[in-house]
Amino acid sequence: MTGRGYPRRRHTEVLGELLPLAGSRIVDIGCGAGPLVRALTRKGAIMTGVEPQAARIAEAQAAERMGGEHYFEGGAEALPLPAASQDAAIFFNSLHHVPVALLERAFAEAHRVLVAGGWLCVVEPLAEGAAYELGKPIDDERAVRAEAYAAVQRAAASPAWRQAAEIFYDTEVVYADFETARRDFEKVDPARAAQVAAQRESWERAFHALGRRTEAGWAFSQPMRANLLARQ
């Protein structure tokens, strides 16, 4: 156990427990450069990634293909997919990046593209742990993470969805070095670049103070919450 007693788990292990992967049509909403799309493709899922940033889609399309995965540029509020075309949808570390005013529309779009009885899995970082503390001086996401969870709770209480599970676990965010962390923070939101530049020295000190050095790089604990909703 780690943190507040959450078990240390891999994201793919959790998703494999919550969702049927092999042969399922799954959309990763806010897929970034597509690491989860590729990971779940390797596990037999028929994956589609949707991402609003054209630069991240270009990265995803340039990466080595794992199978028949597809990528499309688009926002969570207007998914470029037909109705009832997916067996499952995932918001993985992405729902809190959806503008608050568009959260309800994002859930409506997920509902639209899912088959009846399809699954929506929302995996979000909690506002705690070393990874959160590292990011806080650059972009404190406590408020937007709370808004995202409130949207999950509203959906779970609505007739459109049924909550099937809510689990908590701990994982680690690993960066090869400080420069890798800097690039990753800026790729997620290019608007962060000015904050990173302004606080570079103090942020680099925080990076080494909060991180745990491992063979793979610098590891930062990040507690997570996963909510599984069934489309009604």
Total tally of structural domains: 1
Just name the CATH architecture: 3-Layer(aba) Sandwich
Mean pLDDT across residues: 96
Fraction of residues in H or I helices: 25-40%
Largest sheet, strands/sense/barrel = 8 strands, mixed
CATH secondary-structure class: Alpha Beta
| CATH topology-level fold name | Rossmann fold
Give a brief rundown of this model:
The protein has nine helices and eight strands. The chain is of the alpha/beta class.
List the helices and strands and how they pair.
Elements lengths: L10 H8 L6 E5 L5 H8 L3 E6 L2 H9 L7 E4 L12 E7 L10 H11 E12 L4 H6 L6 H16 L3 E15 L2 H11 L4 H6 L1 H11 L1 E3 L2 E15 L1
Parallel strand pairs: 1-2, 1-4, 2-3, 4-5
Antiparallel strand pairs: 5-8, 6-8, 7-8
Keywords:
alpha/beta; 29% strand; 232 residues; globular; Rossmann fold
What would your notes on this structure say?
- With 232 residues, this protein is an alpha/beta fold.
- The chain has one domain: Vaccinia Virus protein VP39 (Rossmann fold), CATH 3.40.50.150.
- Helix content is 37%, strand content 29%.
- The protein contains 9 helices and 8 strands.
- Strands 1, 2, 3, 4, 5, 6, 7 and 8 form an 8-stranded mixed β-sheet that branches.
- Helix 3 (54-62) links the parallel strand 2 (46-51) and strand 3.
- The chain is globular, with a radius of gyration of 17 Å.
- The mean pLDDT is 96.
